[in-house]
């Protein structure tokens, strides 16, 4: 499933970009497993696009277990044997009117910690797809779909610790979600990629990219899990944009298009 999803997403992105091509790196993890990272940089449409898959296993420390499982028990002791397979992607377009997209779909299994023999194996699915624009186009958000007191973007679909149906049914659900990425996102890119923009609008996009960097490095559970389990740094940080900007205490003018985006991040709403 993850190989097919990576192939179809990369093919669609190359087609809409028209110039950029994905570079592929196959890697192995010293503790067990490995993956395939594909990255497109400095294309005609995408500043940076990463689509990664991984199948890893081994033993993770308690802090990695807490990052992997939303409902993790803080008291769970000792290293935890695990298996994880998933696909993860972040797509950063050049045009400030074209939104960033993130998606991730994954499957986990964990054995009991080494000091609790005989406990049953746990398994679950998790994932999501979310849109992070610099400018709000409500029709785009409808089509598609607490850092600094802001949300990272305008929402999407998210689920975790999903194991209340059989594995085949949940795999089918996760596969359907992954297969929905291209039809949900590519029409928005085709609509926005050639929209004229000025320097101030590009600067605002870069400021929002700065927020994206902050969120991914400080709060993102996938980043934490990868770092705590000895993952490949280049693949973990492929989610970061090629460029970003920070200005001290920047506040957009109330009522401006930039303010509308910030207001939507601070005060979330139902888009559909």
From TrEMBL:
Its EC number(s): 1.3.3.3
Pfam (any one): Coprogen_oxidas
Domain of life according to the entry: Eukaryota
EC class: oxidoreductase
GO molecular function: coproporphyrinogen oxidase activity
InterPro entries, per database record: Coprogen_oxidase_aer, Coprogen_oxidase_aer_sf
GO biological process, one term: protoporphyrinogen IX biosynthetic process
Catalyzed reactions per annotation: coproporphyrinogen III + O2 + 2 H(+) = protoporphyrinogen IX + 2 CO2 + 2 H2O
Keyword terms of this UniProt record: Oxidoreductase, Porphyrin biosynthesis
GO cellular component: chloroplast stroma
Pathway the protein contributes to: Porphyrin-containing compound metabolism; protoporphyrin-IX biosynthesis; protoporphyrinogen-IX from coproporphyrinogen-III (O2 route): step 1/1
Family of this protein: Belongs to the aerobic coproporphyrinogen-III oxidase family.
Subunit structure: Homodimer.
UniProt cross-references to PANTHER family, sorted A to Z: COPROPORPHYRINOGEN III OXIDASE, MITOCHONDRIAL, OXYGEN-DEPENDENT COPROPORPHYRINOGEN-III OXIDASE, MITOCHONDRIAL
Listed name of the protein: coproporphyrinogen oxidase
